[in-house]
Amino acid sequence: MPSTSELDRVTRVVLRYMRPPVFVLVIVYAIGITGMALIPGEGPNGDVEYMSLFHAFYFFTYTATTTGFGEIPGAFTDEQRLWAILCLYMGVIAWLYAIGSIIRLVQNPHFLLAINEQRFAGAVRKKCNPFFVLCGFGDTGSLLARGLSDHRFGGVVLDKDPERIKALALRDYNVKMPGLCADPTVPKHLIDAGIQ
After folding, report:
1. Four-residue CA torsion sign, 99, 103, 106, 110
2. Architecture of domain 4-107 in this structure
3. CATH topology assigned to domain 115-192
4. Which of 46, 143, 152, 163 has its Cα between 20 and 30 A from that of 57?
5. pTM of the model
């Protein structure tokens, strides 16, 4: 299981990016539902009737995603139709903002680094047999990793150069050697690599 600090780091990055869009979605839904519940409609006998909060929530839920099933529970007045149009546009804009924020989040280098560190630490924790920690994956580190792999010894790699970690992922070793693009002189990274 990932350590609390790793989960906290990933969670903090997610919350930093997703808090505003979630807040916007909640506000848009609250305004849309409240408006539909407060705008007078016309009942089956022609008398004034208000939509219940449940029906307003149901209507706005499928309208905000542009699905649209028609006017439920009954025919709408012109005011309700105008409000439904406004709700539709508000919902689409809010969802586009939220989706854009998700795309920005998954492209954020801090988020990707936090995820990679979490995966690396998890892969290290899954290792049952003793293993070596290789600090650097240059020419010497690469030869050492090949020798360890040929003799069925496990290892993990720390290197500052992202290209070297990418090269590690492409190597065909006999044993899996997870790698992390990190400074091996930082104690936290050595602890993540399995040194106690």
Report:
1. negative
2. Orthogonal Bundle (1.10)
3. Rossmann fold (3.40.50)
4. 46
5. 0.71
